[in-house]
UniProtKB/TrEMBL annotation:
Parts of the chain that traverse the membrane: 45-65, 177-199, 205-232
Name recorded for this polypeptide: Protein S-acyltransferase
Keyword Membrane attached: yes
Example GO BP: protein targeting to membrane
Transmembrane helix recorded as keyword: yes
Biological source species: Polarella glacialis (Dinoflagellate)
UniProt KW keywords: Membrane, Transmembrane, Transmembrane helix
Phylogenetic placement of the source organism: Eukaryota, Sar, Alveolata, Dinophyceae, Suessiales
Alphabetized GO MF terms: protein-cysteine S-palmitoyltransferase activity
GO annotation, cellular component aspect: endoplasmic reticulum; Golgi apparatus
Length: 269
């Protein structure tokens, strides 16, 4: 559902902004301590420029992930027609006698017909790769409910399909940059903060303040995400709580996975 995708995107953006604000705050604190120690102004401006450049690059990648086409195949006359004989026969059957759609896609040489998107996935005319050729290049995402090319997996952090090969197509390149920045950005902020604290005579006091503040921010963030999850899937969360608090749970009950909770697959009975 669209609401789940939007909530996934908001959660990912929220956490990214939280990390960036934390790193930027650490760097500004470092600049303050450096100013007290009369460190050269050029060094202070350099530290700020580096941390802000990393944050802007990360925001650019997130915007590209949210707005760029991951390689979804659109429904057009060229992609939907001609209909396979199996599907045409299914449509010709009276509604009361149709039954379920075929479970497997229809393969015709190098192309395949997705019975859920109702379109042909044809690699002809598209750039070919040795790793993903023919029908293996396409996949139907059960969460986005669309077929995409060069599918990797659905990112529940940003609510988008991760697709592409190398650095040339799809949005995989932006995910790779974000993964790298997820290590570089906090490391830069903490390194600069440590260097600034060492310049201050009251570094033990400020170290404790930053540690307590960081723990408080993570606790607040976890509570906010829990509230978002309860809003998105209230029936699933209520079922989970009833299951956890029930004293009559039998020993044969299977454990409830987080994916089942997140996508509403927990029965309320």
């Amino acid at each position: 559902p669209r609401r789940i995708k939007y909530t996934e995107s908001l959660c990912g953006i929220f956490w990214s902004l939280s990390v960036h604000l934390s790193c930027i705050s650490c760097t500004h604190a470092d600049v303050y301590f450096m100013a007290e120690a009369n460190v050269a102004e050029a060094i202070r401006w350099f530290c700020l420029a580096v941390i802000y450049a990393q944050a802007l690059l990360s925001m650019y990648c997130i915007a590209c992930i949210q707005r760029c086409d991951p390689g979804a195949i659109e429904r057009t006359a060229e992609t939907c027609l001609p209909q396979p004989a199996e599907m045409a026969a299914w449509l010709a059957t009276p509604v009361a006698d149709r039954g379920m759609l075929p479970e497997k896609n229809i393969i015709d040489g190098s192309k395949s017909f997705c019975v859920r998107c109702w379109l042909w996935r044809d690699p002809v005319g598209k750039e070919s790769t040795a790793a993903m050729a023919g029908v293996d290049r396409f996949h139907h995402c059960s969460k986005c409910q669309r077929c995409v090319e060069h599918y990797h997996h659905h990112c529940t952090y940003f609510g988008r399909c991760k697709t592409g090969t190398g650095w040339r197509n799809g949005n995989l390149r932006y995910f790779r940059i974000l993964i790298g920045l997820s290590f570089i950005h906090p490391s830069t902020g903490l390194s600069v903060l440590t260097a600034g604290l060492l310049q201050s005579e009251s570094w033990p006091y400020w170290t404790g303040v930053f540690l307590v503040g960081s723990v408080a921010c993570y606790i607040v963030g976890a509570l906010l995400l829990s509230l978002v999850a309860c809003y998105m899937r209230p029936d699933a969360m209520a079922a989970l709580l009833r299951k956890a608090l029930s004293k009559e749970t039998s020993g044969n009950d299977a454990p409830v996975s987080m994916s089942a909770i997140w996508y509403g697959k927990v029965s309320s009975q």
